[in-house]
Amino acid sequence: MTKTILAVDDSGSLRQMLAFSLKAAGYGVIEAVDGQDGLNKAKLQQVDMVLTDQNMPGMDGLSLIKALRAMKNYQNVPILMLTTESGDDMKAMGRAAGANGWLVKPFDPARLTEVVKKLIG
Amino acid sequence: MITNDMSPSERLNAQVMHLLSGVSEHGDQHLAEVERDLVQMDVLLDEAIKKLCASFMAIHHAVDLQQEALNVLLASGKPAPEYAARFEALRGEINQHVGAAVTGLQFQDMTSQLIGRMVQHLAGLRDVFGALDTTGSVLPESNNEALLTTLSHISDRVGACCTERAGGVRSTVNQRHMDSGDIELF
After folding, report:
1. pLDDT tens per residue, chain B (186 residues)?
2. Which of A112, B43, B84, B151 pairs with A31 at a CA distance of 20 to 30 A?
3. Does the pLDDT of residue A76 top 90, yes or no?
4. Order of all β-strands in the sheet with B183-185
5. Is residue B90 part of a domain?
């Protein structure tokens, strides 16, 4: 069965490149334009993994992770941050919020799919 | 307005107020130009990335179809081994270029963040120039104490502008190259 990944980013071109890379590797992709949109879509359909940006209008990535982790069905779903931020303090906040990993933009599709495969197969 | 019948102290006060208003007005004009250029740059980059992404997707789709056709040809015929090896090597090269293009095409995410940050700072600078504006203000009385009080009020307004904006500015983008970033699993 195809694994589905929720890709949350306010940049349309970034979402397009994420969807392209993940679909090429055989995953299904649901796109969301910000944290709130991502939360709504995660509630509508259970996904196998979440990839989220940090800086977005409205709900940011850290708030999305906290909201997802508060839901029973998302407590064990891998969540990765994909962001331009690379500071240790931000990473620590991500980790505390419940993120499973931190990817600094821009991403390389081969390395990204390698990490995704490691986490959800 | 500075006139000859003013005392030296009055002239100094008027000159300071005139200078502040001039800085405010001209600074604001330059800011408006920079803001307009930044907005235009953002629009152009947005259109460029949409076209680049569309072309990239179309090229990738066409190459996929071409590879499928080549696979059929290779399977149905008896190609020389060197051609089969060459096609395989080309497939690897194409995949490498596709990966590099996907990384490169993420530039607009970063440039739009930087432009957004610049616009926030320009808005902050506009507030500062606004705080410096003394147009319509009553000239301080002809003593240094009054001028100092006026300057102190202006300084307070400038300080308040900086404090107000400091919290709202988004963090900067530190990437200096379009190479793929670090990955850390917790």
Report:
1. 667 777 777 778 888 888 888 888 888 899 999 999 999 999 999 999 999 999 999 999 999 998 888 888 878 877 777 877 888 888 889 999 999 999 999 999 999 989 988 988 898 888 888 888 876 666 666 667 777 888 888 888 888 877 777 666 677 788 888 877 889 898
2. B43
3. yes
4. A28-32, A4-8, A49-52, A79-83, A101-104, B183-185
5. yes
Which residue of chain B has the CA closest to A109?
B99
Task: Name chain B contacts of A102, Cβ cutoff 8 Å.
Answer: 182-184, 186
B22-36: b (≥16 Cβ within 10 Å) or e: eebeebbeebeeebe
* Contacts for A88 with CB less than 8 Å, ≥ 6 apart: none
Region of residue B37 (left: phi > 0; alpha: psi -120 to 50; beta: else) = alpha
Q: Residue ranges per domain, chain A?
A: 1-85
Q: Whole domain around residue B76: which residue ranges? A: 10-166
| Complex ipTM over 0.90 | no
The answer as to whether B47 is a domain residue is yes
Asked if residue B183 belongs to a domain, the reply is no
Q: Of A12, A20, A106, which is closest to B180 when you measure between CB atoms?
A: A106
Cβ A19 vs Cβ A29: under 8 Å: yes
| pTM, two decimal places | 0.82
Question: B102, B113, B169, B182: which to substitute to probe chain A, counting the most A Cβ within 10 Å?
Answer: B102
Question: Into how many domains does chain B fold?
Answer: 1
Asked whether the beta carbons of B140 and B150 are under 8 A apart, the reply is: yes
Task: Provide the pLDDT for residue B1.
Answer: 64
